[in-house]
Amino acid sequence: MNWSILSIFMMVLGVSVYAQGGGSGKPRMGGPGSPCFEDRQKYCSDVPKGQGRIRDCLKENLDKLSPECKEHLDKRWGKKKS
Length: 82
Description:
InterPro entries: Cys-rich_GLG1_repeat. The chain is mainly alpha-helical and 82 residues long.
């Protein structure tokens, strides 16, 4: 009985960590709470998630992004990537 409870707990914990960005410690690209959230909504709201499409959209609009978002992306991408 105890092993089944432990197994269920570990499964729920794993799903929870995965849903929150994999536990990488990096803020999500344009999710709520991200410095790029408003910019993503403004410039990339019609872009579907996955395969780097949000990243590419933000790069295409780099000159229009807020200073906070640009700083966040510089840190995330390891200084200016154009």
